[in-house]
Amino acid sequence: MDLQALVLPYKTATMASELKPSAACKQLSLKVAVLEHLKSSGFLQIETERPTLSLSFDLSTMVVPVIDFSKLDGAERAETMAQIANGCEEWGFFQLVNHGIPLELLERVKKVCSECYRLRDSGFKSSEPVRTLDVLVEAEQRGEAVAPVDDMDWEDIFYIHDGNQWPSNPPEFKETMREYRAELRKLAERVMEAMDENLGLDKGSIKSAFSGEGRHEPFFGTKVSHYPPCPRPDLITGLRAHTDAGGVILLFQDDQVGGLEVLKDGQWTDVQPLAGAIVVNTGDQIEVLSGGRYRSAWHRVLPMRDGNRRSIASFYNPANEATISPAVAAGAGGEGAYPKYVFGDYMDVYAKQKFQAKEPRFEAVKAPKSSPAA
């Protein structure tokens, strides 16, 4: 969704007639928060000499929950905590605004990552997905029947973490991404603390589980992706449907080009672009720790004919050595629905079954009943 689609004329009378007073107040409060968020980001210019403010947001079109994270420390803390719980329980996805990451930093991140892709563009044009699609199109032109590709993605990616080599061009990339990752790590830990509280756990419980009770460093990695324009989106997927293996995922997605969808109640739903927002989703390990109360959600990226989608996803995951098991009573899945296992073992299974159902992955790492308790 672009800014023009997000910023709509605000009519007090219409709002009052269509919403109950309490709902109207809540929606107006969030609209103001998002408005301030975009104003401070530079995406929205307001002419202060005008006698009235004539801009607002139609948040009814933002289906995936949007949460003003700054209210976690104010008078509306309880309501904000409830919104986070709802996002985790009902969606597995939500968007944070006023999250504390400087919006000027986000602009720099966009710039260096887009420049990185520009330098990599020629490589993608000769990549296997492009060659495969060319072969399919040529076969189709000869009158042959072709089937969509189901074993690769229309995606250019690279990963950065503390232990690997980062791109040296553009020159600002390393400094910018180090600063960004430090801010994002802090945000992830604040989100996990909110989850702790909502689950009735001691503060820091999820972080402690991810670190093997402090013996290891949780893994924090970042995947920088671009989804270039695709001439035949009917023949290949941007990113195939999957759930994420790890813990808490924080995504800084493109604010102009959509394509990310989450599966909710059997229907694919857009995670609509919102300038300056951070999208949060819960991975498989949060589902296990919560005993199924929080669910890792299936999601995918659709390829687009027009527009180059930028996507920067960071993963706050357990250390490979960490032991993961339910920290709260089992949810709807029943007692024993989730096993106790070492995260590294789970990742070995996930690497082979990423795009398959998650339940067999849990079963695959379940210790035999005859094994002694760890």
UniProtKB/TrEMBL annotation:
Residues 218-318 form the Fe2OG dioxygenase domain. It comes from the Eukaryota. PANTHER family: OXOGLUTARATE/IRON-DEPENDENT DIOXYGENASE. Keywords: Ethylene biosynthesis, Fruit ripening, Iron, Metal-binding, Oxidoreductase, Vitamin C. It is an enzyme of class 1 (oxidoreductase). Belongs to the iron/ascorbate-dependent oxidoreductase family. Its cofactor is Fe cation. GO terms for molecular function: 1-aminocyclopropane-1-carboxylate oxidase activity; L-ascorbic acid binding; metal ion binding. It comes from Urochloa decumbens. The keyword DNA-binding does not apply. Its EC number is 1.14.17.4. The keyword Calcium does not apply. One of its GO terms (biological process) is ethylene biosynthetic process. Pathway: Alkene biosynthesis; ethylene biosynthesis via S-adenosyl-L-methionine; ethylene from S-adenosyl-L-methionine: step 2/2. This is 1-aminocyclopropane-1-carboxylate oxidase. It catalyses: 1-aminocyclopropane-1-carboxylate + L-ascorbate + O2 = ethene + L-dehydroascorbate + hydrogen cyanide + CO2 + 2 H2O.
